[in-house]
Automatic annotation (TrEMBL):
It is a multi-pass membrane protein. Pfam families: TPT (PF03151). The chain crosses the membrane at residues 12-31, 43-66, 78-96, 133-150, 156-174, 186-207, 219-241, 253-275, 281-300. This is Sugar phosphate transporter domain-containing protein. Residues 23-297 form the Sugar phosphate transporter domain. It is found in: Membrane. Its main location: membrane. InterPro entries: Sugar_P_trans_dom, TPT_transporter. The keyword Manganese does not apply. The keyword Lipid metabolism does not apply.
């Protein structure tokens, strides 16, 4: 067991990483909402490509400053991750287009049990009864907040399934690659960002034209819209980095569970800045249930046996071999 000072340091770093992710994630949602709703820039996939171009530039600067050290990651792993990540981006956009908002939200809620299944199958993780129940409470709370009309169609279900599983695989793979190849968040992002940038810049305009019927080169760019695009790209650097940091420090399941706190913040900020999306008793009740579930999950998963690997199975270390688990809690 680590010293109290080391435990306190880890707790502070965990809180800092999580706050970084919440601030950047909620910030980019608000900026993108203003960009799309107010300025009519509906090219979501291309915008994500711009985000990764900006992130790639950041990794080049970080490498020049010495914050990213030389590291090795097989191209097969990079391409596999890029496939999951790009399918997630396109799948989410298509799911939102083909499904009602209610079914889209239900599909997003399915990411938590899907992530749990990946950890059970690949990492041999088992959850205590309290941890399972706390996850269910979070799901119920967020569902009460966000799910309204629900209509189902075959192609919408297919898009939702692709979106859910590709997102879960992407998030699981971040954690897996960091551990297997002993990569910190900066190094992993340095490997991934250029490939995602190149692929999304190439396919983004075609995907957006398919989804919206509009061409990005025919958009009427003006100073306000260019400002919001630039701001979105700058915030996206923090969002991408914070996601890698958080999944590396926690797990895909914890990232999903605590990630619903961002949903609550978005609802509140949406009410403050876009008043037509008002809060009502149902939404407030759902928020309270979800927050209680998140607090319960934090307590239940941190207790002995709350979430653990089966002891009779070996743990992969950072070099990909089996043996005792090696983990530096203070590594970002």
């Amino acid at each position: 067991m680590g010293s109290p000072r080391k435990s306190d340091r880890k707790a502070l770093l965990d809180i800092g990483a999580w706050l970084f992710n919440i601030v950047t994630s909620v910030g980019i949602i608000m900026v993108n909402k203003a960009l799309m709703a107010t300025h009519g820039f509906t090219f979501a996939t291309s915008l994500t490509g711009m985000h990764f171009v900006t992130t790639t530039i950041m990794t080049i600067v970080f490498r020049w400053l010495g914050l990213i050290q030389p590291s090795h990651l097989p191209m097969s792993e990079v391409l596999k991750f890029a496939l999951f990540a790009n399918l997630s981006i396109v799948g989410m956009n298509v799911s939102l287009m083909w499904n009602s908002v209610g079914f889209y939200q239900i599909a997003k809620l399915c990411m938590i049990p899907a992530s749990c299944l990946l950890e059970v199958v690949f990492d041999q993780v088992r959850y205590s009864r309290g941890t399972k129940l706390s996850i269910m409470v979070v799901l119920v709370g967020v569902a009460v907040c966000t799910v309204s009309d629900v209509s189902v169609n075959a192609r919408g279900v297919m898009a939702a399934v692709i979106a859910v599983w590709s997102t879960c695989l992407q998030q699981y793979y971040v954690h897996f690659l960091q551990k297997k190849y002993a990569l910190n968040s900066f190094n992993l992002l340095g490997h991934m960002a250029p490939v995602q940038a190149a692929s999304l810049v190439l396919v983004g305009p075609f995907v957006d034209f398919w989804l919206t019927g509009k061409r990005i080169d025919q958009y009427a760019y003006a100073l306000p819209s260019v400002f919001f695009i630039t701001l979105s790209c700058l915030i996206a650097v923090g969002t991408n980095l914070s996601q890698f940091i958080c999944i590396g420090r926690f797990s895909a399941v914890s990232f999903q569970v605590l990630g619903h706190m961002k949903t609550i913040f978005v609802l509140i900020l949406g009410f403050l800045f876009f008043g037509k999306e008002g809060l009502n008793l149902q939404v407030v009740l759902g928020m309270i249930i979800a927050i209680c579930g998140m607090v319960w999950y934090g307590n239940a998963s941190s207790k002995p046996g709350g979430k653990e690997r089966r002891p009779h199975l070996p743990q992969r270390n950072s070099n990909g071999f089996t043996g005792e688990k090696t983990h530096d809690d203070d590594k970002v």
